[in-house]
Every structure is written in structure tokens, then in C-alpha cells.
């Protein structure tokens, strides 16, 4: 289930280009078919309903205003604690090394800490993906809180992502910063084996078996949804 939530969140956090309406319908129908009374699919469905009536151009403008015009709402995870420093360069190298180790081939025109990319990796490589998301839990929580303060429906997407991780979410920014100093909470539940009911395209398996390797495209892509190409491909500057 966690992998399904992360894959859906990855797709929902991409820039909404012309293909957005079809992508949204596919995600909506897939989420409704997931088993079990969990809150994460409901949060993602609430986001889908909130934006369903918006033309892609209008939602695209909101996307830019939300994620590109505020450093507190960036989708690049290492920026929250490394900023534009030399230290961030080292952090990005570690991300690239992680992807290579697990046979994950992200697009070359996107930084490896781009959240939709990280979520797709976590959907495809659950164990390694879980670890890296937990390492960046504080950044995810800061983004969630900033989106909520902004009144953005994207806050529901981040809430769903954070609920796939162990431990309760911090209530405010100060608590999220304390989380950064103290490290992620200890694992309290087992990791799921992979997406529940989400088909992956056929492709070579990497070091984690079915959880790695996608021959240059996103291993977690759903049928009918274009490959994850980064941020963004449809005229978004």
C-alpha cells in the first residue's frame, strides 16, 4: 500500500501539463480500488477532487506559484537544510549514487532530490526508498506545514506521503526542526513488498529484484501515464 501511495503522490506532484486530466482520472480510479480503510488514499482523493475542475493551465499557474516562488515550498528536499551551499552538492552526489546502486535511471535534466523523483524511487525500491524518505522526514514535514500555511490543496498530498512513514507528524515548524536535529523515528512496522495492485511495465530487474531497474524510464509508471521526465516538460520555466 505504501508504494501505491508514493507512486500516486509522485504523479500528482508533477507539473500539470496537457495530459493532466487523463492522468488525474487514472490516479483517482486506481486509488478508489485500493483495499483497506487507510487515510492516505482519502487524502489523495481529496486533492484529486479539489483540482478536478481546474484547467491544466490554471493549475499549472498555481503549481508555479506554490512550488517555484517560495524557498519554503520547494520540491527539492536537500534545499531545506543545505540551501545553496557546497554541502548540498555532496548531498546530491549521494542521491545519485543511491539511484545508481539500485539500477534507477532518473532523467538527466532533473536534480535527484526532486520529490516526485524520490517518491517514484521509493515506490519502485521500497526498502531503500523508505530509508531515504525517513532521512529527509524533516524536510517533508516542513514542506507539508508550509503548504498548509499557504492554503494549498497540495498539503493533502504531503500529508499522505508523511503518513506512510513511522511516527506521528510534528504539529508545527519548531517541532519539525527538532525532528531534524533528533533524526527520524525508529522503524515500528515492516515494509511492504511493493505497490498493491499497481502494474509496472516489464523491464530488467536491478539489485533489489523487481524493485529496481527500469531501462531509463520510470519503473513505477502506470499504464497510460507518460514517463516521469522531471520538472516540467510542458513549457514550465
TrEMBL record:
Coiled coil: none annotated. One of its GO terms (molecular function) is metallochaperone activity. GO terms for biological process: chaperone-mediated protein complex assembly; nitrate assimilation. Pfam families: Nitrate_red_del. Signal peptide: none annotated. The keyword Transferase does not apply. The keyword Transmembrane helix does not apply. Residues 193-210 have a biased composition (Low complexity). Keywords: Nitrate assimilation. Residues 182-237 are annotated as: Disordered. PANTHER family: NITRATE REDUCTASE MOLYBDENUM COFACTOR ASSEMBLY CHAPERONE, NITRATE REDUCTASE MOLYBDENUM COFACTOR ASSEMBLY CHAPERONE NARJ. This is Nitrate reductase molybdenum cofactor assembly chaperone. It comes from Streptomyces hoynatensis. The gene is narJ.
Amino acid at each position: 500500500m505504501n508504494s501505491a501511495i508514493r507512486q500516486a503522490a509522485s504523479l500528482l506532484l508533477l507539473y500539470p501539463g496537457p495530459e493532466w486530466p487523463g492522468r488525474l482520472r487514472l490516479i483517482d480510479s486506481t486509488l478508489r480500488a485500493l483495499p483497506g480503510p487507510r487515510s492516505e488514499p482519502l487524502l489523495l482523493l481529496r486533492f484529486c477532487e479539489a483540482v478536478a475542475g481546474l484547467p491544466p493551465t490554471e493549475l499549472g499557474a498555481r503549481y508555479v506559484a506554490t512550488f517555484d516562488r517560495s524557498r519554503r515550498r520547494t520540491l527539492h528536499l536537500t534545499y531545506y537544510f543545505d540551501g545553496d551551499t557546497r554541502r548540498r552538492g555532496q548531498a546530491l552526489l549521494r542521491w545519485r549514487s543511491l539511484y545508481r546502486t539500485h539500477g534507477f535511471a532518473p532523467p538527466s535534466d532533473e536534480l535527484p532530490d526532486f520529490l516526485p523523483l524520490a517518491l517514484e524511487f521509493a515506490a519502485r525500491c521500497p526498502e531503500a526508498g523508505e530509508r531515504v524518505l525517513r532521512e529527509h522526514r524533516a524536510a517533508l514535514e516542513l514542506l507539508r506545514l508550509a503548504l498548509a500555511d499557504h492554503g494549498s490543496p497540495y498539503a493533502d498530498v504531503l500529508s499522505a506521503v508523511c503518513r506512510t512513514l513511522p511516527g506521528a507528524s510534528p504539529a508545527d515548524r519548531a517541532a519539525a526542526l527538532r525532528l531534524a536535529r533528533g533524526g527520524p523515528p525508529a522503524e515500528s512496522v515492516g515494509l511492504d513488498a511493493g505497490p498493491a495492485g499497481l502494474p509496472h511495465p516489464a523491464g530488467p530487474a536491478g539489485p533489489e529484484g523487481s524493485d529496481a531497474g527500469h531501462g531509463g524510464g520510470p519503473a513505477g509508471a502506470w499504464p497510460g501515464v507518460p514517463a516521469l521526465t522531471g520538472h516540467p516538460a510542458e513549457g514550465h520555466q
